[in-house]
From TrEMBL:
Gene3D superfamilies in UniProt: alpha/beta hydrolase
Name assigned to this protein: Alpha/beta hydrolase superfamily protein
Listed GO MF terms: hydrolase activity
Keywords: Hydrolase
Ion transport listed as a keyword: no
Length: 278
C-alpha cells in the first residue's frame, strides 16, 4: 500500500465528504425526453482526478440532468482501505441513461494501477449485482489515465461489463512528456513513464468494442491546459486507434484544467458522443 500523509484529520474529512454525498445522492427524475437523444439502461460512470471528489462532477451531473440527458442513480465510494460503498436506489432495467458517480476517498498519490483495480472491482459489482452488460465512462485528468490503464490491464476480463464509450477530459496518458516534446510521425513518443510503457506493451488487449472521445485544451496557445500537456493526451492515439471501434480527438481552446468539467461546451460534447441520435 502507498503511504500518504494527509493534512487534515481523516475522520473529519470522511464526515465532510459523506455530508456532500448524502446531500446529493441523485438528480431529479427525468421530467422529459429529448427527441434528438437516445435513452437506454447503459450506465455512465463519472470518475474524478487526483485531489478530486464529489465536487468534481456534481455540477456537471446536475447540468446533464437539467438538459434531460440522464439521471444520477448511484454514488460509489471507494474507501481509504479500498472497500466499495454503493449509495442510492437503482432499478437497472430503466432506460433513463443512468449516471453513476465514483468517489475515491484516497485520491492523492495513487497509481493508475491501483485506481484501475478499484474501477474493475466496481464494474464487477455492476455486472453481477445489477446485470450491467455494457457501460460508458466520463473521466477527468488522473481518473482518465486510470480508466485507460484499466482497459489495457483488464480489457479481456469477462467478469466485467463491456466497454461501450469513453469520454476522456484532460487525460495524462504519457506523464514523461512535457509541452515542448513532440510525437513521432506515427504518433509514438521517444520516452514514456512506466504506466505508458505498460500500456504500450499491452496494446492488443484493449477492447475492440470501445469508442473513445479524447478531449484536451490548448490554453493561451501554450500547448497545455495548465496541467496536462496536449502531447500527453494525444499519446493515446498511438495506443488505441488501430484497435478500437472508434477514436476521436477534440481540441478545445482556452479552458483551464479544472474548467474541463465545469463548461457547457464540454457538456454538449459528452451528450453528443454518448447519447445523440445519429
Amino acid at each position: 500500500m502507498d503511504q500518504i500523509q494527509f493534512p487534515i484529520n481523516m475522520a473529519k474529512r470522511k464526515r465532510f465528504l459523506e455530508g456532500i454525498l448524502i446531500h446529493d445522492v441523485s438528480c431529479k427524475r427525468l421530467e422529459a425526453r429529448r427527441s434528438d437523444l437516445k435513452y437506454s439502461n447503459i450506465p455512465t460512470l463519472f470518475i474524478h482526478g487526483s485531489m478530486g471528489g464529489a465536487l468534481s462532477f456534481n455540477n456537471m451531473l446536475k447540468r446533464l440532468n437539467a438538459k434531460f440527458a440522464g439521471e444520477k442513480v448511484l454514488l460509489v465510494i471507494v474507501t481509504f482501505t479500498g472497500k466499495l460503498r454503493f449509495i442510492g436506489d437503482w432499478d437497472a432495467r430503466l432506460d433513463n441513461n443512468p449516471l453513476i458517480q465514483v468517489i475515491f476517498e484516497r485520491n492523492i498519490g495513487v497509481s493508475y494501477k491501483r485506481e484501475a483495480e478499484w474501477i474493475n472491482q466496481i464494474l464487477h459489482v455492476l455486472k453481477f449485482k445489477f446485470g450491467v452488460e455494457k457501460y460508458n465512462a466520463v473521466a477527468h485528468s488522473w481518473g482518465s489515465g486510470s480508466l485507460v490503464y484499466m482497459g489495457f490491464a483488464n480489457g479481456q476480463d469477462k467478469d466485467v461489463p463491456e466497454i461501450n464509450k469513453f469520454v476522456l477530459l484532460a487525460a495524462p496518458i504519457n506523464n514523461a512528456l512535457h509541452k515542448w516534446n513532440h510525437l513521432n510521425p506515427d504518433g509514438s513518443s521517444q520516452k514514456g513513464d512506466s504506466s505508458f510503457k505498460f500500456m504500450e506493451i499491452n496494446r492488443k488487449y484493449f477492447p475492440e468494442t470501445a469508442q473513445i472521445l479524447n478531449v484536451y485544451s490548448n490554453r493561451k496557445n501554450r500547448k497545455t491546459d495548465g496541467s496536462v500537456p496536449n502531447v500527453s493526451s494525444q499519446s493515446l492515439a498511438y495506443l488505441v486507434r488501430d484497435t478500437v471501434k472508434e477514436y476521436r480527438e477534440a481540441l478545445v481552446e482556452d479552458l483551464s484544467h479544472f474548467e474541463m468539467h465545469e463548461n457547457e461546451r464540454i457538456d454538449d460534447m459528452i451528450i453528443d458522443f454518448l447519447w445523440r441520435n445519429k
